[in-house]
């Protein structure tokens, strides 16, 4: 887990840096979406239940195909948070434990800046 965790924490810090460079207010609360996926819907469903138990809002799963034509299922586990590195690192650790216990992929987190949010809601 440590090498995966290290990569996720590095990505998180890079994302925070990019958001701050783009003018994000570090003290403002943002909708943080943590992305989980699996080829096995049952495993993903188990992860969704665990994420709800941890206090996250879970979206309905989406279905998509990867470049090799494999069918995947994915959902976002959402929470509101500031861009606090320690808080987001704690969330990453918490979600990675659930992902590994449920045998699903955790692909990190993302958010939208307020000015961009409306652009994505229409897509």
UniProtKB/TrEMBL annotation:
Keywords: Cytoplasm. SUPFAM superfamilies: Hypothetical protein VC0424 (SSF89946). Pfam families: RraB. Residues 10-111 form the Regulator of ribonuclease activity B domain. This is Ribonuclease E inhibitor RraB.
């Amino acid at each position: 887990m440590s090498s995966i965790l290290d990569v996720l924490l590095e990505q998180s810090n890079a994302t925070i840096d990019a958001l701050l460079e783009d003018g994000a207010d570090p003290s403002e609360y943002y909708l943080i979406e943590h992305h989980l996926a699996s080829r096995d819907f049952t495993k993903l469903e188990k992860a969704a239940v665990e994420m709800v138990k941890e206090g996250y809002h879970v979206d309905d799963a989406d279905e998509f195909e990867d470049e090799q034509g494999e069918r995947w299922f994915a959902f976002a586990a959402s929470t509101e948070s500031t861009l606090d590195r320690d808080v987001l690192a704690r969330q990453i650790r918490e979600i990675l434990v659930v992902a590994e216990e449920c045998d699903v992929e955790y692909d990190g987190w993302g958010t939208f800046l307020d000015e961009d949010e409306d652009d994505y809601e229409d897509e």
